[in-house]
Design brief:
2 domains; binds NADPH dihydro-nicotinamide-adenine-dinucleotide phosphate; 503 residues; Aldehyde Dehydrogenase, Chain A, domain 2; 23 strands; globular; single chain; six-stranded mixed sheet; alpha/beta; Aldehyde Dehydrogenase, Chain A, domain 1
């Protein structure tokens, strides 16, 4: 397997980014003055220095968001005015793509080329949300009889807490924040402690774009210290979380106890189903892309393939051959497709999952080992064959560059296997037979089913999962509505009939 290195990374990496939080319109440090460093998982050097905040900082942020919602101008501005600010933010991101992509690459370990795509993709999400700010509307009922008119208003839900993970930090935040802002909400954000960089840069862009103070607040620190206080806080109206199913469950329980609105984007164990009549080359490429994109640290990772028995051996060999050639290495190298793993802990977890599969009787047909490099956390692209449905590797999210191969004999069996996990985020079907594709698309319990493609996404299309993959949907034109409450206003026209008149 090839491993690409880069000479003289010190110059490219430069000085660590010193980010500051955003509370009540001020870029600030933690009240205690404490800070924490982030080391690049690929280069093992400090690339970011951030405030290590505590509960008190999180509470100040919530107070600011509450005041901005209750007393500020943002919720009452016209959609046009809000859209103008969102468009300025889009311009601000656009102007800083290189800078943001570099810190995203250094903190996550993902290839710089991919980080660039992610950051520039966010520009479109902010623009799309801006368009929705102007088209959000309620309903009117003129069908209730001549004495009645019903109007259903959409009002911003209030203060939204947003807790985000480390795998696509700025992208995942951009699936939430501009839509909440378009609706007129205010927000408190807590990024993953591993990847604060782009979120704090966005804070600077929001200030430059003229967002009124307190409308967006960002606190950095550990989940239990600054994330948890944002969930059950009485001044918070809604919690939007992306991350692990384990933490998602905790958050849903706490938000549920406080009867807050909650939206959750969680894990997945997403199958790609390969039928014998598939476009062979396209399917092989999509399988390799599906599992190694973002080093498999992706809720949408195509981490298992279900291959028809008739082609299983030949197809697996083709995938192994292609995967063997995927360029792994320093994420700063322009040709690298698979960079470093986010943390030592994550790498250890992935290796443990591979070991468990081996012990359960599966075969490690490719990779499985850590790359022996001077520095950095790298795992070889891995393929596990001979996987059976009851094995943990067939059912649980690995969140690393590890593909499991299972086989089937009929369409019904493929659908049953696809549904045989607790998750339901996404799936793909590869066949030229439209009947097979449509049957599978209808029967698979997943928020997205791709047909003869994988991982394509558009701001217009809703994203989210069934079952343990989450609650609610992001993106699409309903995304803004999720951040609203409906209010019914009933108007009476003309003389009202008395219920009772005293004799
Ligand atoms: P977590 O779910 O632990 O963390 C996601 C976010 O929640 C982070 O900002 C984290 O803070 C915060 N958090 C953690 N505990 C709490 C809490 N008690 N209350 C409020 N917020 C909290 O994911 P990890 O980043 O630790 O990754 C662990 C596993 O989760 C991965 O191996 C993967 O399987 C899965 N995952 C799934 C993702 C998805 O998109 N579906 C994304 C990322 C991970 P902090 O980490 O800063 O302490």
């Amino acid at each position: 397997m090839q491993f690409l290195t880069v000479e003289n990374t010190t110059q490219i990496i430069g000085q660590p980014y010193k980010g500051r939080m955003l509370i009540d319109g001020e870029l600030c440090e933690a009240h205690s003055g404490a800070s924490a460093e982030r080391r690049s998982p690929a280069h093992d050097v400090v690339v970011g220095i951030y405030p290590d905040a505590a509960q008190g900082d999180a509470e100040r942020a919530v107070d600011a968001a509450r005041a901005a919602f209750d007393e500020g101008t943002w919720p009452n501005m016209s959609g046009r005015e809000r859209a103008e600010v969102l468009l300025k933010v889009a311009e601000g991101i656009s102007a800083r793509v290189e800078e943001m992509a570099l810190i995203e690459c250094l903190e996550t370990g993902k290839p710089l080329s991919q980080a660039r795509g992610e950051v520039s993709g966010c520009v479109d999400l902010w623009k799309y949300a801006a368009s929705l700010a102007r088209t959000l509307h309620g309903e009117s009922y003129n069908t209730l009889g001549e004495s009645h008119l019903g109007v259903v208003l959409r009002q911003p839900v209030g203060v939204v807490s947003m807790i985000t993970p480390w795998n696509f930090p700025i992208w995942i935040l951009s699936q939430k924040l501009p839509f909440a802002l378009a609706a007129g909400c205010t927000a408190v954000i807590k990024p993953s402690e591993l990847t604060n960089g782009t979120t704090l840069m966005l804070g600077e862009i929001l200030v430059e774009a003229g967002l009124p103070k307190g409308v967006v607040n960002i606190v950095t620190g550990l989940g239990p210290a600054v994330g948890q206080p944002l969930v059950g806080h009485p001044k918070v109206d809604m919690v939007s979380f992306t991350g692990s199913t384990r933490v998602g469950r905790l958050i849903a329980a706490e938000a549920g106890a406080a009867l807050k609105k909650v939206s959750l984007e969680l894990g997945g164990k997403n199958p790609q189903i390969i039928f014998p009549d598939c476009d062979w080359d396209a399917a092989v490429d999509a399988v390799v892309f599906g599992v190694y994109f973002n080093a498999g640290e992706c809720c949408n990772s195509g981490s298992r393939i279900l291959v028809h028995k008739d082609i299983a051996e030949r197809f697996s060999e083709a995938v192994i051959e292609r995967a063997r050639q995927v360029p792994v290495g320093d994420p700063l190298h322009p040709d690298v497709k698979v960079g470093a793993i986010i943390s030592e802990m994550q790498l250890g977890g992935i290796q443990a999952a591979i070991e468990e599969a081996r012990k359960a009787g599966a075969t490690i047909s490719l990779g499985g080992e850590r790359h022996e490099t001077e520095r950095g956390l790298y795992l070889q692209p891995t393929i596990v064959t001979g996987v059976t449905p009851e094995m943990t590797i067939a059912r649980e999210e690995v969140f690393g560059p590890v593909l499991s191969v299972l086989t089937f004999e009929s369409v019904d069996e493929a659908i049953a296997l696809a549904n045989d996990t607790c998750y339901g985020l996404s799936a793909a079907v590869w066949s030229k037979d439209i009947d097979v594709c449509l049957k599978a698309a209808r029967k698979i319990d997943a928020g997205t089913v791709w047909v003869n493609t994988f991982l394509d996404g558009f701001a217009e299309l809703p994203f989210g999962g069934f079952r343990d993959s989450g609650l609610g949907r992001e993106l699409g034109h309903h995304a803004v509505e999720d951040y609203t409450e409906q209010k019914t206003v009933q108007l009476h026209i003309g003389e009202r009939q008395n219920w009772w008149l005293p004799k």
